[in-house]
């Protein structure tokens, strides 16, 4: 099978039952994306496929031949971080770091969705999506953080989105963690 992952071509013989996550981790040594629940419930395995975020633990690798796949390793490098990676570091948007690669990949996809005007469940105005704290929390609700770094994650995303700092009175993450 042929895959393009992080801009590099890979021709690899792999069992058709192999998930995209296992292909990257076990066959290509791309261990940034994590296997959390292996049921699509935690988001630790989030990758971008053709710019869209997916839970790679639920997706068979064979389904993504010739797609453009981006893992956390493809977003930035040491000394040249992606803006979201940099913001996560500066805002302490991680604690143990296990969920961080999935959080960042999901945030990249989420910001692209919002820039295209895609509404979420809590979008008040479907013609003009505003990235409020509630909106960011809803859009990131598929990515869980057991350490509860949600306010810092939202701050990092708000900064990259150009929306300034979080409302200090907002209750961010409560509905995400529930």
UniProtKB/TrEMBL annotation:
Q: Which Gene3D superfamilies match?
A: 3.10.20.30, [2Fe-2S]-binding domain (1.10.150.120)
Task: Report the domain of life of the source organism.
Answer: Bacteria
Signal peptide range: none
Q: What are this entry's molecular-function GO terms?
A: 2 iron, 2 sulfur cluster binding; metal ion binding; oxidoreductase activity, acting on the aldehyde or oxo group of donors
Keyword list (alphabetical) reads:
2Fe-2S, Iron, Iron-sulfur, Metal-binding, Oxidoreductase
Q: Which residues form the 2Fe-2S ferredoxin-type domain?
A: 1-75
Q: What is this protein's name?
A: 2Fe-2S iron-sulfur cluster binding domain-containing protein
Annotated organism of origin: Sphingomonas carotinifaciens
